Amino acid sequence: MASDNKEDKEVEESKAPLISHLIELRDRLKWAALAFFVAFLISYIFKIHIYGFLVKPLGQIYIEMGVENPRMIYTGLTEAFFTYLKVSFYAGLFVSFPILASQIYKFAAPGLYKNERKAFLPFLIATPVLFALGAALVYFFIFPVAWKFFLSFQTTAIETGGLAIELEAKVNEYLSLVLKLMFAFGLAFQLPVAVSLLARAGLVTAKGMKRNRKYAIVCVFSIAAILTPPDIISQIGLGIPILILYEISIYLAVLMENKRRAKDMEDNNAKSDLDEETDVDDIPETDFNDEE
Hints:
- The protein folds into two domains: 16-170, no CATH class; 190-274, no CATH class.
- Helices cover 80% and strands 0% of the residues.
- The protein is built from twelve helices and no strands.
- It has helices at residues 2-13, 18-45, 47-64, 79-108, 114-151, 157-160, 171-188, 191-200, 206-211, 213-227, 232-282, 288-291.
- α3 packs across α5.
């Protein structure tokens, strides 16, 4: 109870007028915007390197197929320029995310209890790490398989008895697809973080997640079908990792429930001890001298 009173005092002391909160919010947004702008400029300077990194899976398959001078095209006069801007935007957002998240945390931290601030930090660290793992999964494992599958539909003039079917990939369409898949996988990998926070707040339970597992499977593959291209490889490649993360999330929900239950038990015991001390203090003293 003493620790709770101390935490309540800390939160009370951190209270400030509305204008102070608005000034604090302005400063946090200013630093977040500045960090993103700097990351965007740096990303644009290295746009060719980022482009080369993103097209490398397709280029490797072209080399394996023996294609000479593989290329990508653009058909609009401004298409390549705006494509570079889009790539720089997403790269800058990814690079500056730790700073953006830290600014959000610093703005919200004064209104949180000390134990809540400590509990929030692991999620703040896990979010970019899980996002990077999701993006790495699609880049190193899904792209090579999916691109090889799509390129298998190319035919020669002899096979068709007429005109050959060859891929002339547009740079805008290709990079839009790559960025969409990388962000889809990165966001999907946030499932353990989201479930852990919801379980900590008591909004979801491990028992409920186990009971609704069959519905979760249907939802997972439905979402995978929407987020990925219309091929079974990408859908399975996104669906199976999400199902694995769903099972991990159930385990994390159990841990959060146990921690919350232990804390509630500790608070109840402390309250019971305080009530007993209060009851003892309220017992009136008997003056035996008066009775005589």
